[in-house]
Structure formats: structure tokens, C-alpha cells
Amino acid sequence: MAVGANISVLSNFLLSGFSDYPPLRAVLFVLFLGIYLLTLAGNLSLSALIRMDSHLHSPMYFFLGNLSFVDIVYTSSIAPRMLCDFFRKQKVISFVGCVTQCFFFIGMGGTECCLLAAMAYDRYAAISHPLLYPTLMSPTVCVRMATAAYAGGFLTGLVQTTSTFQLHFCGSRIIHHFFCDLPSLLDLSCSSTFLNQVVNFLVVCAVGGTSALVVLVSYGYIITAVIRIHSTCGRMKAFNTCASHLSTVILFYGSGLFSYLHSSPGYSRDKDKVVSLFYGAVIPMLNPIIYSLRNKDIQEALKKLKENKKQMSPLCLVVP
């Protein structure tokens, strides 16, 4: 066991990446680079817009700004490494690098779950209790909810990463993925992973399950409140305030559950990579697009920003 422990600590891992598709390497690199750059540009722009426009200084956009930050860290934990590996024959990742990647990817994923739950509660408070909304979602409450979201996410990452990397990896070092994914790492262990699977399941239920329950209950009350609204215009207005968030929830939870709760022993590794790419790269890119297209406040803030630039442009002319 001591030898196995030394091997598990000192040895590196090898990522298979997308080595099965050499003819498509250039196309995939350009595609994934474009997705990553769009993710950074979209989320940074949305965060900057929320900070600059005073009309967006509300609980809903406070959480949206945090969601953009989480999405940037979330996708950055895997994308730069994946892009660099396209040009490497030996896709070696150190033990410490694998631990770090795993921790941040899981931690940010857990934080996003909690933030989506906080945003669902925010929409419930706004629609079901509009008069009490300033009290229910005061700045202090928002900061506490955001802090709890980060704490829950990092606790998830810490527990799952610690339990996984206490295992012994004395056999194959090839991770059949493009990043250090927990299920792929458990497959490499030469010791029993039953306890790890139980711990991971409990943590996912505690953080992901609780967050999903908050979302479901919040939307249950929201639907009840919307049904009670007599005017069609009022119903549509209430629904529009939730449409962007609901789209993000469906995309995130749907792809995450599909990826991590499959139990088929013959599950395709290629499908696993595609799903991981979807929730690790595509969804963070889509989130700012969804909120920009569906949200009138953000659209108005963008129009004001464009108008201010046009008004300021004459001042930038150089007078001889």
C-alpha cells in the first residue's frame, strides 16, 4: 500500500484528449478557441455593463454578475489546458495540476448550482411578494446568499477532490478525457472506490439536490402566483422576468445530470466528452447571450451605452 501511495502522489497523468481525431485537430482547435473567447468576451462584457449601469444595481443583476464570474473561472479551469494539448504529443498533466483542475471545476460547478438557486428565490420574492421584496432581498441578504453559494461550491470541490486523490493510482495513468474528470479518475484507481462513490453521491445530493429543490419549489410558487394574475399582459411580464433564468437552469442541470448520473457500463467516452464540453464550455458561452437577448433591462443598458459613446465621440476629435 505504501508503494501504491508513493506512485499515486509522484506520478503524472496522461490525458487522451481528442487524439482519436487527428484530421479534425485544426478544426476542433479553432472551434473551441472561438467558444472560449466568446465566453470570456460575453461574460466580461455583461459584468462590466452591470457595474457601469446604476439601473442594474439590483439583487437579480448582483447574482447575474456573480454567475458571469463563476462561468469565467469554470470554463477557464479546463479550456486553456485543452487548447494547449492540441499541440502536444504527450498530454501530460502533473498530479498537483490534476488536483487543482478537478477542485476548481467541481467547486465552480457547485457554486453555479447554488447561485441558480439563489436567483430562483429572488424571482419568487419579486413575483410572489413584491411589497416585501426590498426586505427579503436586501443587500445584506444578497451578500450572505452569494457567500453561502461560494462556500457550498468550494466545500463540494474540497470534499470530492480530497476523497478522490486519497486513492492509489498504481495501474494505467491514461485519463480517457480532455481534463481530470472524477469518473475517469475513479476508473484508474487500483483501490476500492465504493466509499468515494458514496461520498460523492451524498455531496451531490446535499449541494446539487438542495439547489435543485430550491429551484423547483420557487418555481412552483411562481407558477401559482402567475396563475392568480388576471391580466394576460401581467402574466407575460411576470413570465418574461423568469424566462432567461429558467433557460439557464434547464441547460445546466439537464446536461450535468445527463453526464454524471449515467450508469450504463457501455457508455460511450466520445458522448461523455461531448456532454462535458457542453456544460463546461458551451453553457458558459450561452448564459450572457440568453440574458442579453431575453432581458429588456440589459438591452436598454446596451442602448444607453451606445448612445453615450456616440455623444462622446466628437470630444475625441483632435482639433488642430
Q: What's the topology here?
A:
Elements: H1 2-10, E1 13-15, H2 25-52, H3 59-76, H4 79-85, E2 92-93, H5 95-128, H6 133-136, H7 139-164, E3 174-175, H8 182-188, H9 194-228, H10 232-260, H11 269-294, H12 296-312
Describe the protein in words.
The protein has 320 residues and is an all-alpha fold. It has a single domain (2-294), classed as Up-down Bundle (Rhopdopsin 7-helix transmembrane proteins), CATH 1.20.1070.10. Helices cover 75% and strands 2% of the residues. It has helices at residues 2-10, 25-52, 59-76, 79-85, 95-128, 133-136, 139-164, 182-188, 194-228, 232-260, 269-294, 296-312; strands at residues 13-15, 92-93, 174-175. The protein has a 3-stranded mixed sheet with strand order 2-1-3. The model is unreliable at 1-10 and 315-320 (pLDDT under 50).
Quick gist of this model?
The chain is an all-alpha fold and 320 residues long. The chain is built from twelve helices and three strands, in the order H-E-H-H-H-E-H-H-H-E-H-H-H-H-H.
Number of domains: 1
SS summary, helix count: 12
Helix content: over 70%
CATH fold label: Rhopdopsin 7-helix transmembrane proteins
Task: Report mean pLDDT, rounded to a whole number.
Answer: 84
Which strand order does the major sheet show? 2-1-3
Spans of 5+ residues with little confidence (pLDDT < 50)? 1-10, 315-320
SSE pattern, N- to C-terminal: HEHHHEHHHEHHHHH
Q: Give the end-to-end Cα distance, rounded to a whole number of Å.
A: 80 Å
CATH architecture: Up-down Bundle
Rg value: 22 Å
Q: Determine the strand fraction and express it as a percent band.
A: under 5%
